[in-house]
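Technical annex, item 7. During the second reporting period the consortium partners agreed on a shared format for inverse folding records so that results from different sites could be compared directly. Each record opens with the tokenized structure and is followed by the designed sequence. A conforming record, contributed by the partner at site C, is shown below for reference.
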């Protein structure tokens, strides 16, 4: 039996049973709600977990890079949404991939992107499946559904011979600013109602049959059922993390991804430890510092995931500095396990994941990287 204590550190560890339970719970909620489940795979970027999200099958998925799209297509996933507004320079690559699979939905929120698609299709033939990105309050990307410009762009999409206007897509990233489950619930209501109101408005223009696609892990986790939408796309829920546990999306015992680290230095006079997990093993995401300022750069635990009275206060490239009330009981070479603040960013720093079941390493998975 290969144990966690033998891993070369820092190491990214996936708890198989926790990830499986997270996948089954979210998949069952979508099935019960009668909506299409199109989970995001950007958190883990592995074939194994994408299949787990689909109940063992290569089901519909959402991706965040063209590299992911190509990787998953090569592994038999045939129904993809690339959920970042497409850069015109990537249309060639997208068109090539779309020819190989059943469906590649692309995203836009600007008329110039539509014009670039039309110019591409005029020059090379073919057409694109497109979702209009809508801002439901996050303020990152997407059209303001209350603005006249959003209706105009929808009209242009519906009227273009070069696109099939498939639906409206939003991501409630502002759910991460919530301070409680109740606040997440109110963002979840805003996420769906803003799309439904916009879809009704477009219905008055004769633009109908649009898929209403929503999805963020906080909102998807707190609702009892998915209502007022047609498709859901959560992704982080596979691993969850310290951020999600802090804002109330999950329990700490549902966090499925951790970083195993080795103690490099013990400084009892300063109540300080140094570990080999720095910013390149954890990312510098501050997590839920708006409600848990004492958490630091991740929750510090022992190898059995029992939380320790320690705070990971600073990260440089390869060092993590921990403050604790007493460094006396810790020795150089000891191992600690960190629940990261943001598992998506942390996972992206590793080229392999060690998969653990009942304390033993049972597998190693390899994510796709880059763009
Ligand atoms: C467009 C889009 N859809 C879905 C998701 C999944 O959200 P989460 O990571 O909260 O599960 C994201 C995450 O950034 C996203 O950008």
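Designed sequence (site C submission):
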């Amino acid at each position: 039996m290969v144990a966690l204590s033998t891993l070369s550190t820092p190491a990214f560890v996936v708890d198989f049973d926790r990830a499986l339970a997270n996948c089954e719970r979210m998949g069952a909620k979508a099935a019960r709600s009668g909506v299409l489940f199109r989970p995001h795979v950007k958190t883990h970027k592995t074939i194994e977990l994408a299949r787990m999200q689909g109940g063992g099958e290569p089901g519909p998925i959402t991706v965040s890079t063209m590299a992911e799209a190509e990787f998953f297509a090569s592994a038999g996933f045939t129904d993809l949404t690339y959920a970042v507004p497409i850069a015109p320079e990537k249309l060639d690559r997208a068109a090539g991939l779309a020819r190989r699979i059943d469906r590649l939905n692309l995203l836009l929120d600007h008329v110039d992107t539509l014009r670039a698609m039309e110019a591409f299709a005029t020059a090379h033939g073919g057409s694109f499946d497109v979702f209009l990105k809508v801002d439901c309050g996050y303020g990152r990307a997407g059209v303001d559904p209350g603005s006249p410009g959003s209706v105009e762009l929808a009209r242009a999409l519906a009227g273009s011979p070069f696109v099939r206007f498939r639906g409206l897509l939003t991501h409630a990233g502002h759910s991460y600013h919530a301070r409680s489950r109740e606040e997440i619930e109110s963002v979840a209501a805003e996420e769906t109602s803003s799309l439904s109101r916009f879809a009704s408005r477009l219905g008055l223009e004769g633009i109908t049959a649009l898929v209403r696609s929503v999805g963020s892990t906080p909102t998807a986790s707190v609702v009892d059922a998915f209502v007022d939408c047609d498709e859901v796309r959560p992704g982080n829920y596979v691993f969850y993390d310290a951020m999600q546990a802090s804002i109330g999306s999950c329990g700490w015992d549902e966090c499925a991804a951790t970083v195993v680290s080795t103690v490099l230095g013990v400084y009892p006079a300063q109540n300080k430890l140094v570990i080999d997990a720095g910013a390149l093993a954890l990312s510098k995401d501050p997590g839920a510092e708006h409600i848990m300022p004492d958490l630091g750069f991740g929750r510090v635990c022992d190898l059995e995931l029992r939380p320790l009275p320690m705070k990971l206060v600073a990260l440089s490239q390869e060092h993590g500095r921990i403050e604790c009330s007493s460094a006396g009981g810790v020795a150089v070479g000891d191992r600690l396990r960190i629940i990261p603040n943001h598992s998506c960013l942390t996972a992206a720093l590793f080229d392999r994941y060690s998969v653990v079941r009942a304390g033993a390493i049972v597998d190693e998975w390899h994510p796709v990287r880059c763009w």
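The radius of gyration is 22 Å. The first strand starts at residue 2 and ends at 3. All partners now use this format for quarterly exchanges.
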